Input
Amino acid sequence: MGYVLAFAGSNSSTSINYKLVKFTSSLINGHEVRLRDMSTYPFPMYSQDVERDSGFSNSLVEFKNEIRNAKGLIISVNEHNSYPSAYFKNVIDWLSRLDAQFLLDKKILLLATSNGGRGAIGALEAAEKMLTRFKGDVVENFSLPKYGENFYEEKGITNGDLAKIHAEKVASFVKSIS
Output
């Protein structure tokens, strides 16, 4: 138990939320960070029939165990129509069926970004409610609006004010897991 698990709530191979979580992970010092690309986790859409007929996949059990053994989580949730994507909700549904308290006392830095001016704030707020329902502790959250204008993969967050806020939130999260 000594690592931070980081992932985006998106299964897109070009996810801007994955790029944000990857950048954020690079700022974590003094802790091992395990970055997961969820586009490689093709969970079926949850249904009681699938659960009854197929049970829980090995990759789901492994992912749940990785969450359980992490010191903290960095999650960047994407937005579809003002809410977290169906993929993210599906992953949470599967995890919660496997263990209703899969986030028990887990410290979480919750992020979101979009190309719009609201920065996926609707998805961020909904995701925070979901995660705390399963006993996660969202210690900080951060929304990055206008991703295309405020972020470059080579540099990270380019807006000075937003970069400062982000750095403060990251530092607060690191302090909470130390």
In short: The radius of gyration is 15 Å. The helical segments are 16-26, 48-54, 58-69, 86-98, 121-133, 147-150, 160-177. The chain has a mean pLDDT of 96.
